[in-house]
Specification:
This protein has 484 residues and is of the alpha/beta class. It contains 16 helices and 21 strands. Bound molecules: 2'-monophosphoadenosine-5'-diphosphate (ATR).
């Protein structure tokens, strides 16, 4: 089982001790970054392991390797030599230094040896070679994937090392592209993953906090059989989906983890997915259309909407694409109306982008007669033509047309969300309380348009439920896809 190692980054030993105490339930070991300590703290370094109930890694990182040590190399090595008497669990020695005497000393005091290298520019071409250079010691590579292709190469190297099953190794990706490797350390055969305390400076770019690793990502429950799902997009770090999906896995006791994969190429991501045996992913901006030609099959919703937000392996192992946005959008509306369909209703869709497309599909699918209203009328016309419905512009001259389709008004555009939170796209229209008004924006919870409709007595819906429903359906699909 991969261990969790917290990097202690405080400038005093006392602060480090407090951080360690606070995180003891979450960590298996700690790394004492002596290069970040005030020099006046040096005398207290050797006694640290004796007061720590978990093994301590002794590290003094040079500036060129991402640390803060700028002194002379001889002085650094002398300090490490002296500190080794403190009974550290491990010492981190860079691969590119002549460390013969330190290695000897470490062996004599039974301190494990980590031989490390850091690449802040990317993933080196000779990664496999670097990771097998020091037989008998723990090789550590901290590299910085800058693309989905880089992540693929990193994962490939890790899995090759895992297959050979030789000496333990630590191989982790920094930054947002590398973030999944921190959560999936066990899958990658890495001896440990590093994390930071939420209140202290981060130990490296892209570190997870100990709290998130243990809570949100359930790191300790990830094993050989754990199903990997996730989200691909750019950006993904702000996504709520990991909280929703991982929360459901925990609630239902499922052996699965949901990971954010920052992606710049869905094709490279799918190659990584093959290597790791990833089961399913949510697809978000800007890949909802780009993913379609890369999968083995699509369903009716994807074909009609021209976008997929859900890709999963079906029971035959093929990549299948579907779209749960439409279902997510319609479900809260049907719940509000207490009905199974929208037959006999006339519905107005405001906006003509990707979200509008999903809305028109979903509303028509349930039997509503739909019209598209958009500021740029030509875009409304194009969308309407695809679905064989009516189209109008958005302005006072279209008030009567909107009235005619006002049984349900679904707002799908960006007017109402930051930075346009003060914009009401139908400000020209007076609600009379008979309209069901649905704005799929979820931040803010109540948009200008919703507030006005509410004041007029209309039943009003915001976008949060849609977000939850589309995710819930994904959650079900990711499970059903596997069971067939
Ligand atoms: P998405 O694919 O996420 O739906 P999009 O394609 O950028 O996003 O569409 C944004 C929608 O918001 C468009 O319908 C846009 O209208 P235009 O086609 O006329 O640009 C609409 N929108 C953006 N700002 C608006 C505003 N101030 N008033 C009304 N509609 C607005």
């Amino acid at each position: 089982m991969a261990e969790i190692c917290m990097v202690l980054t405080a400038s005093t030993m006392e602060e480090n001790r407090v951080i360690l105490e606070r995180n003891l339930p979450f960590v298996d070991m700690v790394e004492l970054r002596t290069d970040l300590l005030n020099e006046s703290e040096y005398p207290y370094v050797p006694s640290f392991p004796a007061h720590s109930s978990v093994p301590v890694v002794l590290t003094c990182r040079k500036e060129c390797d991402g640390g803060r040590w700028t002194g002379r190399e001889k002085e650094r090595l002398d300090l490490l030599d002296r500190w080794l008497d403190g009974g550290f669990g491990f010492i981190d020695l860079e691969m590119d230094i002549d460390a013969r005497s330190l290695v000897e000393k470490a062996r004599s005091v039974h301190t494990g040896i980590i031989r490390s290298f850091h690449d802040f520019k990317g993933v080196p071409e000779n990664l496999d070679d670097m990771m097998t250079r020091f037989e008998g010691d723990i090789a550590k590579g901290a590299v910085y994937p800058r693309s989905s292709g880089d992540l693929y190469r990193l994962v490939r190297t890790a899995l090759n090392l895992k297959k050979t099953g030789q000496a333990p190794y630590i191989l982790l990706g920094m930054g947002d592209f590398g973030f999944p490797t921190r959560i999936l350390a066990e899958k990658l055969g890495s001896y440990l993953t590093f994390c930071s305390d939420s209140g202290a400076p981060s130990g490296a770019p892209g570190h997870c906090t100990a709290g998130d690793l243990n809570g949100l990502y359930r790191f300790r429950k990830i094993g050989e059989k754990t199903v990997i799902n996730g989200i691909i997009g750019n950006p993904v770090s702000q996504s709520r989906s990991p909280h929703l999906h991982n929360g459901w896995y925990e609630e239902e006791g499922l052996d699965a983890v949901y990971v954010p994969f920052l992606t710049d190429s869905p094709a490279w991501f799918l190659k990584t997915a093959e290597l790791l045996g990833i089961n399913g992913v949510s697809v978000t901006v800007p890949f909802k259309s780009d993913i379609i030609p890369l999968v083995d099959k699509t369903d009716k919703a994807v074909d009609a909407i021209g976008a997929s937000n859900t890709v999963y392996r079906d029971s035959s192992g093929q990549w299948a694409a579907t779209n749960t946005d439409a279902f997510g959008l319609i479900k809260p509306l049907l719940d509000l109306l207490g009905s199974d369909d929208l037959k006999g209703r006339k519905a107005a869709v405001i906006g003509a982008g990707g979200a509008a497309r999903a809305a028109v599909f979903a509303l028509q699918d349930k039997g509503a007669q739909v019209a598209v209203f958009n500021r740029t009328k030509t875009r409304a016309d194009e969308l309407a033509q695809l679905f064989g419905c009516a189209s109008f512009g958005l302005g006072p001259e279209f008030t009567d047309d909107l009235k005619a389709y006002s049984s349900i008004i679904v707002q799908t555009g960006s007017a109402g969300m930051p930075p346009l939170e003060d914009v009401d796209p139908v400000s020209f229209y007076e609600f009379d309380g008979s309209e069901v008004v649905y704005d799929i924006i979820y931040k803010p919870e109540v948009t200008r348009m919703m507030a006005r409709a509410k004041a007029a007595g209309c039943p009003v819906l915001g976008g949060f439920k849609m977000l939850e429903e589309q995710a819930k359906l994904q959650f079900e699909i990711f499970q059903e896809g596997r069971s067939g």
